[in-house]
Amino acid sequence: MRTVDPTATETRTPRAPSETVSRLSLVPKGPVLVLAVIVVAGALVSPYFATWSNVLTMLTSASVIGIISVGMTFVIISGGIDLSVGALVALTAVMATTAPVQEGGWVAMIAVALAFGLGAGLVNGLVITHGRIVPFIATLAMLVSARGLAEFISGGTPQTSLDETFNALGSAKLVGIPLPVWVFAAVVAVGWLLLNRTTFGRHTLALGGNLEAARLAGIRIRRHLVILYMLSGLTAAIASVLLTARLTSGSNAVGNLYELDAIAAVIIGGTRLAGGRGTIAGSVFGVLIFTVITNIFVLKNLETDVQNIAKGAIIVAAVLLQRRRAADT
Amino acid sequence: MGPSSDPPDPDKPPLLAVRGLVKHFTGARALDGVDFEVAAGEVHCLLGQNGAGKSTLIKVLAGAHEPDAGALLLDGRPVRVPSPHAALELGIVTIYQELDVVPGLRVYENVFLGHEHARAGWTRRRRMRAATADALRRLGHEEIRPDTELAHLSPASRQVVSLARALSRDARLIIMDEPSAALAGHEVDNLFRVIDDLRSAGLAVVYITHRLAEVRQIGDRVTVLKDGRTVASGLEARTTPDDELVRLMTGRKVGDAFPPRGVIPDDAPEVLRVEGLTRAGEFTDVSFSVRAGEIVGLAGLVGSGRSEILGAVYGATRPDAGEVTLDGRPLGLGDPAVAVRSGLGLAPEERKSQALLLDEAVYRNLSLASLRRYVSAGLIDRDREMADARAAIGSLDVRPAEPLREIRQLSGGNQQKVVVGRWLIRGCRVLLLDEPTRGVDVGARAELYALIRRLAGTGVGILLVSSEIPEVLGLADRVLVVRQGRVIADRAAESADEEQILSLLMKGSAL
Ligand SMILES: Nc1ncnc2c1ncn2[C@@H]1O[C@H](COP(=O)(O)OP(=O)(O)OP(=O)(O)O)[C@@H](O)[C@H]1O
Ligand SMILES: [Mg+2]
User: Fold this and answer.
1) Is the pLDDT reported for residue A304 higher than 90?
2) Residue A216: its chain B contacts at CB < 8 A?
3) Contact, B146 vs B177, CB < 8 A?
4) Into how many domains does chain B fold?
5) ipTM metric
């Protein structure tokens, strides 16, 4: 039943001024700008930087954190946080490479990884919604337990993946581009559609923007939150499959601090930590910024400690840049 | 309680004068040359349609916005008000339209936020509590305890706390942006008593309202804004006729406020039935029904339990006992998602905290409860969503009529229209309206009334809560009087009169 006043004619509906439109646009300007500057710097300091093979290397190494940060973007937009993703990469890697699972071949390995990712996300979601424990604590607990479980199952030693087809996922190329990059692109595309064109995305924004308003508008808050954490678990598992295939082994030590990289990328990408506002494209740029910097440092043979110092500085710089823009409007 | 009799001394400069004030926002010209004067010892009313620029003007005075051009003169001397702190230093105290109290703090902490009584760095809580209790008593709200955490108070009580906070300041000029919007009749009287005291003490008060009756009751002079400009200033508050004020505000004549009542057929089915609804500490054994096409009003004081009843029917809170039946089927309680799917809708009392996604565009706020309707092949069809949003914007006269504008940038009254519009788009069997016209101007109000009546005409049952008794009597078919959590009377609105209802809801018996 439509009850908008039928007598009302569509008069006086001028287009919004362009500023308004651009506020809602798809790619935030800040991260694009930062990336552009870094890319130019990269091209200046190393002749190898701008080669096609280096670009592919960068995109491939961006894909793991990139995929995780798509799920993380949803969680953060909803006003939550997921600290368990790094540990879930380890857990799903170990689960997929246990001997009995490997016997089932690559299909079983992928299925088990995804199932554990989704399952852990389900647990996160239920603890948060039904246990009424804040996401920070709930997923911190999951971080600890998932890593513990991964170590318990694997006995603390890496499990070599023997399945050729599975391992090929990490290195095979499709029309000249590595498979992980394709998967990354696909996850980003699906994530973008989900956030911008579906009720699920709108409801996610509503939850983070004003939880009480979302509840009173009839959105099923708890169900939605559970699905969100499952989504985050799922993206961690997808990333884990690609990583495990590339390393040809699953270990309880992988994925260490990935949660911080993903959260940093999301925040640098312009998503508000308090929720209610954010974009997938921004997060992708956030990840690329980190990847490109790391790449430049590697090309220049700089140590990881220097890299980390620079990373920290960039997080602060990017967030300051955002705040400046927010104050302008 | 009459306005002060002495006319302002012509030789003395006014306490505050505003000259040629201009303030632009991206894509909007909020103030476009405003002139305005307030003298000490007067209550100066500021009138204007939704979006006329009233709130923007007082935000400039309060140091919340920096003007683009224009001058402020205090006692005839030019001053700058670069920050809210500077405004307070100058003795300009503001009560904003949107509540700005901190939910996590206690009542007295809110009242003294930013100017705590302290000695050698230690806060003097006992003194602050006593002063808070005193301010609340002056406002007629002894029942609000200084130690209560604000999150536990209703929106209306929070409004009272923000009034108490303004009173606790050392002020020369107190600005109130629609302070009465959340208050019921006798509470407005308390507020007016306080304002009267302030005036007698030589303070100046700027009072913003959409209720002309209040202008008569408390005002000395009136300034009217339209589209960011002063169209009349210094009008005599008691004698300028309503017609004249409305014409100045809107540029046209506004007809009868209330649309004629429809005839509800005798066999109109009951769409909503509430039986024995009880929630400890809020309301007890509430029973009533609403028929298709009927508008039922709940009249009561703030705190009498009206909004709480609405909330429990809707499932926003879980009642301890009782049943709700919708279209003859029992409704699962305690879950708004269930209520909405069964055909209920609620436009809640406090738009900012309970209804709006402030960071989102207008159209997204309008469609929030109806998104599933636009889905085809899993994706939202933006064209259809936008078309519905445009239609709602048109029928509610939301200004500016731009679906893509961030709702935060709309004036209070226009935001309120969007809150109601969300449920017009969704379409309901029963619509619960909690203060639907809060902050809506005279002209738009008449249109909203007509819209609600037309909605009822299509067979929707409507349950209305309003602090304005004339609104309940004018719009509703039936009035339920709520007092201390119980429904104590059920009258046909047509035959009820204001005095009678007032005495029922205050004393519990008719005159
Ligand atoms: N931050 C902002 N950005 C853009 N436009 C704004 C902003 N704040 C206010 N406006 C616009 O300025 C105009 C004046 O708004 P203002 O809030 O002063 O109206 P008002 O007279 O207080 O109305 P109401 O009676 O509805 O409260 C409106 O058109 C509004 O949309
Ligand atoms: Mg206003």
Assistant:
1) no
2) 314, 316, 336, 346, 348, 354-355
3) no
4) 3
5) 0.85
